[in-house]
């Protein structure tokens, strides 16, 4: 029997702790890049974010399990496929950010903020949570502002880390506030249409 769209979103929230652990892992990668940009070089910080990005998904699964979630979605959940497909879009956009950084190193982090902002808009559908619209639009706005104002790479990366760190707390709190004793999530208006 196929799951409904609502059930698929419930499963994504249940399996991945409303996505909060993934956002937290990304925030940590951004924080590392900010520290390296401030203490070593922009070039090293770019590579730190790219290499750190490779560990975001495994770290998020570990964080999910530490918080008592499965760290996976039910087989056949089409929204899991959607989230996975957005990873390919992210990889393609990273190539664009890298090319931009060859012209001007300070453009890499604003381009990545825009890229991640767009990806989180996909997660608004996958998780059925309006929080992701706010997160995506904040990151995209930060990308535009840091680009227009020529903000230093360490500060751009720190902004990304701060935004994501804040929203990781929001999403993890959302997960625990909505838990029922039977481990299913309570549905609320914040999760989108029902």
Task: Tell me about this structure.
74% of the residues lie in helices and 0% in strands. It has 194 residues and is mainly α. The chain is elongated. Mean pLDDT is 91; it is low at 188-194.
At a glance:
The chain is mostly helical. Helices cover 74% and strands 0% of the residues.
How can the largest sheet be summarized?
none
Oligomeric state of the chains? Answer: single chain
Order of helices and strands: HHHHHHHH
Catalogue the unreliable spans: 188-194
Provide the gyration radius in Å. Answer: 17 Å
Strand count: 0
Mean pLDDT across every amino acid position: 91
Question: What's the SSE blueprint?
Answer:
Blueprint: H1 5-15, H2 20-39, H3 42-54, H4 56-66, H5 78-103, H6 108-127, H7 131-148, H8 153-177
Relevant terms:
74% helix, 8 helices, elongated, disordered C terminus, mainly alpha, 194 residues, single chain
């Amino acid at each position: 029997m196929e799951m409904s769209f609502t059930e698929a979103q419930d499963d994504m929230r249940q399996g991945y702790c409303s996505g909060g652990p993934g956002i937290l892992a990304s925030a940590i990668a951004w924080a590392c890049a900010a520290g390296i940009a401030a203490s070593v070089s922009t070039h090293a910080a770019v590579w730190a974010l790219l290499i750190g990005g490779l560990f975001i998904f495994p770290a998020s699964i570990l964080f999910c399990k530490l918080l008592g979630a499965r760290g996976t979605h039910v087989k056949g959940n089409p929204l899991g496929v959607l989230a996975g497909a957005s990873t390919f879009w992210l990889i393609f956009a990273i190539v664009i950010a890298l090319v931009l950084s060859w012209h001007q190193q300070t453009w890499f982090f604003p381009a990545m903020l825009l890229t991640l902002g767009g990806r989180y808009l996909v997660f608004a559908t996958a998780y059925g949570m309006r929080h992701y619209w706010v997160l995506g639009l904040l990151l995209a706005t930060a990308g535009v502002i840091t680009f227009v104002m020529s903000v230093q790479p360490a500060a751009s990366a720190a902004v990304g880390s701060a935004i994501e760190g804040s929203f990781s707390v929001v999403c993890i709190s959302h997960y625990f506030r909505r838990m029922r004793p039977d481990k299913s999530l309570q549905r609320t208006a914040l999760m989108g249409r029902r």
